Amino acid sequence: ILWRDRVGFLREYAKGVISIVQRNIEQGGSGSREEKLVSWIPPLVGWLKLNTDGASRGNPGLATAGGVIRDGDGKWCGGFSLNIGRCTAPMAELWGVYYGLCIAWEKGITRVEVEVDSVMVVGFLKEGISDTHPLSSLVHMCHGLLSKDWEVRVVHVYREANYLADGLANYAFS
């Protein structure tokens, strides 16, 4: 009975979506998605940009992380590509942020904008996380770095704007 309820729910949901799309087309809409050009945008003058990414083959599975620090001209100022072991995708993302922040701090960078393509991870870093959450210790480690004497902004970016960090994370699989 529970399975039938789920199937029924999905059928009703699909009907609703179809009716909304049809109504949009009837009212002059195209029914298609809006295209948006997405690319890496240089940081503000006086800032550097840290892009990080985590990758997991399986969830949990073999995991890696990568990141790059660039200046306003897009020039490489530092980076990493590392094998983490086995973990979940969000944990791999967080390890990427942690290692990237460590490198930025060790380089003496005073203003850094951190771009991450995981909305969940950005939320953890900006809003915090319950102490009982499985990722809480890693989030707290990141918060320890974020609270040091420097200016750090954490923002979400689309995957397409995080292409180099994604490539470095995937390179670690090889």
Task: Write a short abstract of this structure.
The chain is of the alpha/beta class and 174 residues long.
Count every beta strand, where a strand is a DSSP E run of 2 or more residues: 5
CATH architecture: 2-Layer Sandwich
Report the uncertain regions: none
Largest sheet: 5 strands, mixed
What is the CA–CA distance across the termini? 47 Å
Which strand order spans the largest sheet, edge to edge or round the barrel?
3-2-1-4-5
**Strand/helix succession:** HEEEHEHHEH
Instruction: Please write the CATH class name.
Output: Alpha Beta
From the helix content, strand content and strand pairing, which structural class follows? alpha/beta
pLDDT averaged over residues? 90
Shape: globular
Count of separate structural domains: 1
Rg, Cα atoms, Å = 20 Å
SSE map:
Elements: H1 2-26, E1 48-58, E2 61-70, E3 76-87, H2 89-106, E4 111-116, H3 119-127, H4 136-146, E5 151-156, H5 163-171
Parallel strand pairs: 1-4, 4-5
Antiparallel strand pairs: 1-2, 2-3
Structure description:
By secondary structure, the protein is an alpha/beta fold. The protein has a single domain (3-172), classed as 2-Layer Sandwich (Nucleotidyltransferase, domain 5). Helices cover 41% and strands 26% of the residues. It has 5 helices and 5 strands, in the order αβββαβααβα. Strands 3-2-1-4-5 form a 5-stranded mixed beta sheet, with helices on both faces. A hairpin with a 5-residue loop joins strand 2 and strand 3 (76-87). The chain is globular. The termini are far apart. It holds the Pfam family RVT_3.
